[in-house]
Design brief:
The chain is an alpha+beta fold and 372 residues long. It has two domains: 24-171, Jelly Rolls (Sandwich); 182-368, Jelly Rolls (Sandwich), CATH 2.60.120. The chain has helices spanning 17-25, 144-151, 154-158, 312-320, 339-352, 364-368, and strands at residues 29-32, 34-36, 43-45, 50-57, 65-71, 86-92, 95-100, 106-111, 116-117, 124-129, 136-142, 179-182, 188-192, 194-195, 204-205, 214-220, 225-232, 240-241, 248-253, 256-261, 268-272, 276-278, 285-290, 296-303, 331-332. The strands form five sheets. Strands 2, 12, 13, 15, 16, 17, 19, 22 and 24 form a nine-stranded mixed β-sheet that branches. Strands 1, 3, 4, 5, 6, 9, 11 and 14 form an eight-stranded mixed β-sheet that branches. Helix 1 crosses helix 2. The longest helix is centred in the last third of the chain and has 14 residues, at 339-352. It is globular. The mean pLDDT is 95.
């Protein structure tokens, strides 16, 4: 049993109901800064009806966690219904999902590698592995920790009949279609319940976040869980930035690395590839670099969507993520970054035989200038 668990005879204080609940579920728990989800050990989970594990990132914060669902060929989960939100990302495999909305209508759609979907809150759903020979592995980013620590009642969360009818969606939203909704500035949000494949979903240019950067924010199932997909073109990298915890970053395609640092500390580097996930800890500076021969795409989930940010902090992050720290935002402009960052990037590209393209977007010599 973990150190956090309440022991007989001890005073009842500093209790984490979510972690105590998870102990009783009996599945493996992995905790790290960066995790390759393809390598995580899973074990049978009676509640889900499939092999599973919990993945707790060091930067998960107080609101969310990841459940990893590992279905055998031809396998299926139990029918689920619960009072917490989930965003599913398919790591491998093909199958179908059946969702029964609050009005009692059944929706069926087919998912595959790099699919993204979310059932509406407290709607009954079930997942099926459509292959007779291959396993399917799916990551669920969810806000159960917040819900369990708030209500501390398993029956209330997993056996609650309330129907959120205002969250029922058009059939098209379960078929991979959606609606483009303007947000702030020049950014837009795609409203849907299902994205068939993030690898080829059309993104919009967002040059303020870095050379050749593209992005799309998703509003999934009219929920409070955030999701967005970003792309770095070949030979480029994003600008450094920081924010609060719980942003879970899943690598969709391509390979590269990220640097993490606090003021006055040296850089920590984590290399990643498809299937890896990381979550920056609270207000740590971080920066992402594409070192592969193809564009890099990643998908990030967090608590607090663009439509329903939940807190003033989340609202501030969304409005300031592409604004320079010199103007009160949370971004380090290329002109202000440490010259070691670009030198390290050039060395990484050289090892992979990739040409740097940063010079197509700005004066590359500026990136090599000593700022000390």
């Amino acid at each position: 049993m973990d150190d956090h668990a309440q022991k007989p005879g001890e005073p009842r204080f500093l209790i984490d109901p979510y972690l105590d609940w998870l102990d009783a579920e009996g599945i493996p728990v992995v905790e790290d800064f960066c995790v390759d989800l393809h390598k995580v050990e899973t074990r049978p989970w009676d509640r889900i009806g499939a092999d599973s594990a919990a993945v707790h990132m060091k930067g998960r914060g107080d609101f969310i966690s990841i459940f990893l669902i590992d279905m055998p060929p031809g396998g299926k989960t139990h029918s689920q219904r619960h009072l917490y939100e989930e965003v599913f990302y398919v790591l491998s495999g093909h199958g179908t999902a059946v969702v029964e909305d609050a009005a009692g209508h059944s929706h069926t759609f087919e998912w595959g590698p790099c699919s993204l979907f979310a059932p509406p809150l407290n709607c009954r759903y079930r997942l099926f592995n459509g292959s007779g020979s291959e396993r399917a592995r799916i990551a669920s980013t969810n806000n159960l920790p917040m819900m369990m620590n708030t209500f501390r009642n398993e029956q209330f969360i997993f056996d609650n009949p309330f129907a959120f009818r205002e969250r029922d969606a058009d059939e098209d939203y379960f078929a991979g279609k959606g609606q483009l909704v303007p947000t702030h500035g020049n950014r837009q949000m795609w409203e849907t319940n299902f994205v068939p494949d993030l690898r080829d979903f059309k993104l919009n240019s967002w040059s303020a976040r870095g050379a050749g950067s593209n992005n799309m924010v998703f509003c999934l199932a009219e929920g409070t869980m955030h999701a967005h997909c970003s792309e770095m073109s070949v030979g480029t990298y994003k600008k450094g930035h920081r924010h609060g915890p719980d942003f879970h970053v899943f690598i969709v395609k391509g390979s590269g690395y990220s640097l993490f640092w606090h003021e006055g500390e040296d850089y920590r580097r984590y290399d990643w590839h498809p299937g890896c996930v990381f979550a920056p800890t609270d207000m740590i500076w971080h920066q992402h670099f594409n070192t592969s021969q193809e564009p890099v795409r990643y998908m990030a989930t967090a608590f607090g969507s663009s439509r329903y940010p939940f807190s003033n902090e989340k609202r501030r992050i969304k409005l300031g993520v592409d604004v320079s720290v010199k103007k009160g935002g949370a971004q380090i402009e290329y002109t202000d970054q440490d010259q070691r960052i670009h030198r390290t990037y050039l060395e990484a590209l050289d090892k992979n035989g990739v040409k740097c393209r940063m010079g197509e977007f700005l004066d590359e010599q500026m990136l090599l200038a000593d700022k000390s």
